[in-house]
Each structure stands twice: as C-alpha cells, then as structure tokens.
C-alpha cells in the first residue's frame, strides 16, 4: 500500500502533528529479520504484525474501495471486513464488469486482487433459479450457499443462508483434539 496515498487518508482524519509523526515513523521503521539483517521499506508496506497496521489498512481500503464503490457504483450494496469483501450485483454481466473495474482500481492504488479467493457466485434460492459455475462462497468463517429451509408452518423451500465453513469446522476440531479435553479433570 502506497505510503503517500495512506498518509493522505491519515491527514483527513488525524489532526495532531505528533500522531502523524508517529504514524509516519511506524510506516518507515526498518525490518530486522531473525539473522539480524536490517531492511528498509520501499514506501509501500505497513509493519507486518504491527498493532497499527490493521487500522491503517482499513483506512486505506475505506478510500481505495469503499468510497470508490459508492461513487462509481452507487446502486450496489457491499460489505467489507478488513481485506475481504462481498459485492452484490444484479446479474452475471454486471458482476464481471464490476470485478474488472475493481481489479483495475486495485492496480491504480498499488494493490492486487487475490485471484485464488476472488470469484463470482450466484445466490441461488427458490426465487432465483438461474445457473452459474459457483453457487457458494466462504466469508469470515461461514459458507453461504443454497440450503433447504422451512417456514414457520413447516413448508420446505430452497433458501440461501450460511453455516460454519468446513475449513473453520476442521480448525475447531483440530484445536479440540490437540487440547486432550477428554483428559481434563477437576482436582
């Protein structure tokens, strides 16, 4: 992420000169690896694992993506959590156009879209019966997909909802197995 663009965003929200100075220092601080070698940043990254890095990344994406989407595509609804986002489009053609525009926007701002995690999914349910290569996606540890759903009176229909993702479920099971919880005793 470009330090120049990030510091522009910081200037809009931070008024205290001393706070801006510390933010600039955090961004420019050198990196020391395990071997004791010191590398200097190329004015395009935030400190990995730094306490302020998630906040700065969110601020940067607020202007890079959120505000930009609001200007270029005001009719679209979207949700973003850190660097993960869902953008709701009306059809496949619109989704493809918006995805290309987002990729271009990311390049302009010195970022790139993760091709492995990025896809167009169709939110298929009883009312939306179209076809698409993908009808499910993962977001924040949940899998969203078509699922059988029932009404209050017991009528079944196809809904589009979420449940814990397979990846999250496996992670929880692995942690539980490693904890040997079956051997816990009260003393």
Structural account:
The protein has 187 residues and is α+β, with helices and mostly antiparallel strands. It is 40% helix and 19% strand. It is built from 5 helices and 7 strands. The strands form 3 sheets. Strands 5-6-7 form a 3-stranded antiparallel sheet. Strands 1-2 form a two-stranded antiparallel sheet. The longest helix is centred in the middle third of the chain and has 20 residues. It is extended, with a radius of gyration of 22 Å. 8% of the residues are buried. The mean pLDDT is 86.
Poorly predicted parts: none
Give the termini distance in whole angstroms: 53 Å
Overall 3D geometry?
Answer: extended
Largest sheet: 3 strands, antiparallel
Topology pattern, helix = H, strand = E? HHEEHEEHEEEH
Number of helices: 5
Spatial order of strands in the largest sheet: 5-6-7
Helix % is 25-40%
Please indicate the percent range of residues in DSSP E strands (runs of 2 or more). Answer: 15-25%
Rounded to an integer, what's the Rg over CA atoms?
Answer: 22 Å
Count of beta strands: 7
Mean pLDDT: 86
Structural class: alpha+beta
């Amino acid at each position: 992420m470009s330090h120049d663009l990030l510091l522009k965003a910081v200037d809009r929200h931070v008024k205290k000169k001393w706070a801006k100075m510390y933010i600039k220092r955090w961004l420019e601080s050198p990196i020391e690896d395990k071997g004791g070698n010191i590398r200097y940043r190329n004015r395009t990254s935030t400190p990995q694992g730094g306490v302020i890095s998630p906040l700065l990344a969110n601020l940067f994406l607020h202007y890079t993506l959120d505000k930009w989407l609001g200007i270029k595509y005001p009719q679209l609804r979207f949700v973003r959590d850190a660097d993960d986002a869902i953008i709701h489009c009306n059809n496949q053609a619109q989704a493809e156009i918006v995805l290309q525009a987002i990729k271009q926007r990311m390049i302009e701002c010195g970022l790139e879209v993760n091709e492995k995690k990025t896809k167009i999914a169709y939110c298929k349910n009883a009312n939306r019966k179209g076809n698409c290569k993908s009808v499910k996606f993962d977001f924040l540890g949940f899998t969203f997909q078509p699922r059988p759903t029932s009404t209050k009176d017991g009528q079944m229909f196809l809904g589009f909802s979420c449940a814990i993702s397979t990846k999250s479920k496996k992670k929880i099971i692995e942690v539980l197995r490693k904890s040997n919880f079956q051997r816990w005793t009260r003393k």
